[in-house]
Amino acid sequence: MPIPSRPTVLARFSWNLKELPQGSGEMPPPFTLRTAGEQEREEAISLVQASYNLDPEWSGCATHIASTVLPDSIKAMAKEPTCLFVQHGNRVIAASIFDPEPEGGGVHLASGPCVLIEYRNRGIGGALLGATLEALRERGVSSAIGQTRPRSASAKYLCTKFGGKEASAEPASPEESQADAA
Known about the structure:
The protein is of the alpha+beta class. Helices cover about 35% and strands about 20% of the residues.
């Protein structure tokens, strides 16, 4: 007998980029930050998908990830190079895909900061979030929106950095919630 899961609920966070401190995206050594090139789109999507798939906070949200996060990330990268990579040596260990002009009230942080599970808790996610917010500000965005699972570690500790405020917590689209709960 399958274990029923709950519908996908998301907390939306907002950041006032006018108040974002300078140097918010400084990466701790030995990690380096760079913009992903157009030829690295597939690698970025693969890293984002692996990060979500291995994250217990996102367990039971496969439909939301497949129908919203990944397509929004692909659309954002098709417009212009809007992906930041973090490297450890030659290995890409984190990515953040963002959209300066999301469609219809969408989120600016299409993927959010995605760090491979073995590299978490080293300050990489916070620095990547700061760098992503700085990149959005450089493109003329004054207020950014992102989303995560409510009451999760990322909602408590990551999204509150740099003045992030929870705007709302609401179910994902009804179709996604139903599919994820099945």
